[in-house]
């Protein structure tokens, strides 16, 4: 009986710990904002969202690069992706100027703000989309609002489904400033599969011990009868 209680308690503790780490990692990689924005002069985009894990987030202007000839059009407007001319401090190749003014505010104050231009872009490239970085923002936990205005838009890319994406960055939880999240990331990344396997073995052991205990109890009842 004592062995069964100990194994059950250990299995419950490990399972709850693993589920908690999965929840933290899901939140770390979640995109709180994924809102469309029109590429017309003074077009506005507003999105209300929640932040559960405070820390550093990345704001990007993302385009759908899956359409035919989309990558060539993006290259002609945003410059050569992943290349930066350090001498002129500008993108490589041909590019057009643009300006996206944005701010993140709570109900009482502006948390952070900035202006994304062709000279401040970071950018990333995925299978179906290409993004241009608007800024890195440190956000507190709570209910916030993102407001953006396309002061100098890119109408040449209006048919590529432009949208504003706020995320934890390409590193997910590694970009957060919280030591707790860093520890959870290390725990989750290094031992996730092994710990889930261990949790499964523990529950199997609990089931076997429970089965043997019940079988022994039934035998004792039959003998006493």
UniProtKB/TrEMBL annotation:
The keyword Membrane applies. The chain crosses the membrane at residues 185-211. Keywords: Membrane, Transmembrane, Transmembrane helix. It comes from the Bacteria. This is Uncharacterized protein.
